[in-house]
Amino acid sequence: TAGILAPGLGVLAHLERLETQMSKSCKQSEEPQSVQAQEGALGTKIHKLRRLRDELRAAVRHRQASVKASIANVEPNLAVEMSEQEVLEEKLENVKAVLQAYRFTGLSGKLTSRGVCVCISTAFEGTLLDSYFVDLVIQKPLQIHHHSVPVFIPLEEIAAKYLQTNIQHFLFSLCEYLNAYSGRKYQADRLQSDFAALLTGPLQRNPLCNLLSFTYKLDPGGQSFPFCARLLYKDLTATLPTDVTVTYQGVEPLSTSWEEQRASHETLFCTKPLHQVFASFARKGEKLDMSLVS
Amino acid sequence: MDTELAEVRALQAEIAALRRACEDQPAPWEEKSGVQKSFQAIQQFSSEGWKSSKDLKSQLGHLESELSFLSTLTGINIRNYSKQTEDLTGTEMTEKSIRKVLQRHRLSGNCHMVTFQLEFQILEIQNKERLSSAVTDLNIIMEPTECSELSEFVSRAEERKDLFMFFRSLHFFVEWFEYRKRTFEHFKEKYPEAVHLSEGPSSPSMVIRSASQPGFELVIVWRIQIDEDGKVFPKLDLLTKVPQRALELDKNRAIETAPLSFRTLLGVLGIEAALESLIKSLCAEQNG
């Protein structure tokens, strides 16, 4: 930077000296003098003014050129470096975002010092539920160091089948089991919380939520006997039961219409999620009430 | 003298203008904005800038390797993701300490030969007791679109707003798809004369023909189905094409019962062995 400063100062100083000389000679020329002396003085003055003007022209040209050069020298590099940084920052943001996005696949993870910690997210028909993690140690053989999978999920079985040969299959298989368990649990929870009015006794369930037993009535205040439902989910990767029995807890045999209802309920429980079946019961019940009123 | 005076005045005017021009274009070392700032920026950059650039590069490298690991681990490769958040909390809700947020997500990527583009919305409701999140809208675009087995499954996933089931089933479907392709390719390589793949290795059917027995054809149709629960399973069927005369000679009705026998064979030997035995049975006459 010192080199750039010196010539500039030099030019400025030089121009200032010329200026001072000019103003001095101008003042001198204002004093009364003989015409000849005046003419001579004018001539010199013009000569000097011309010199000053030429030097100023040169100085302006010189400055224009050097400003252009310095900008060209300084800013392109800076522009390149700054855009490189911007590009890096943008890439970093993008990669961070995509890493975050993996949780929407149901499977995401983070690298650990020993291997990877996989996070399995569960959901049932759009409602996001619990997450579980499996901490894997990358070595031969691959090992599960740590996990939050409930004890009644057959983790060891699934690991024995797939962990060593096909880790993707292991993870997705575990996903299936955990999502199904989460879904069954969700249905049972919703039944207990939203439709307690239709239940005539407590909901009986096992930790795995694949065996449910409950008694219910379509018309809670009515005289009819309750139905007793038993739902067995043999397929642990499914959220719908494989075996359903609905029985009638009365002494007298069922009338035809009630028998039809009982049979239809069995079908309903097999084909629709538990809380949705009860939601339809509740809606029908409302319709019944309306008919009573009118 | 007048002309000379005039010239003096003209020169003085020009000098004044040139002086002004000199002031308007300050030398680089004088300017405070623009280039001076650039200098300052470079100085700053030199002390901190290079370090942070290196930091950025190493951070990026670490995250990129994490990403590629995750992609290998899940078999799903996400390339783009963007998110928008909208706070729907009304003043009434704030008083009851309820917070409602709508998230709009967009992601795209691929799972082997299938590319997907998803747009979905998640509604988060936070009250004093808990936070509930639910997918309120799901739109899926998939390529290739010829996989008709997939399009039905996609509509079901969209209807149920089941994001995770979509990815899970997609993964298993692609696994089966690749396995079917590898198996067909393997047999095509091993028995080039006998095995024909009409639409290439990705086709859902394999035709077995014997040069020495023209008119006889065994067609194995291998479909990959996705059921209501999102479970993916293969469904194999055997179709036979035989000349009329052979049918007449077939007293034991072996040809009629072939499709059923094939099912049994599958159950006993598994897919690969069953297919191999079929090929060998048709081509055995060729050699013998």
UniProtKB/TrEMBL annotation, chain A:
Pfam families: CENP-O (PF09496). One of its GO terms (cellular component) is nucleus. PANTHER family: CENTROMERE PROTEIN O, INNER KINETOCHORE SUBUNIT MAL2. It is found in: Chromosome, Centromere; Nucleus. It comes from Aotus nancymaae (Ma's night monkey). Its main location: nucleus. InterPro entries: CENP-O. Keywords: Centromere, Chromosome, Nucleus. This is Centromere protein O. The keyword Mitochondrion does not apply. Belongs to the CENP-O/MCM21 family.
Automatic annotation (TrEMBL), chain B:
InterPro entries: CENP-P. GO terms for cellular component: inner kinetochore; nucleolus; nucleoplasm. It comes from the Eukaryota. GO terms for biological process: CENP-A containing chromatin assembly. Transmembrane segments: none annotated. PANTHER family: CENTROMERE PROTEIN P (PTHR28577). This is Centromere protein P. It comes from Aotus nancymaae (Ma's night monkey).
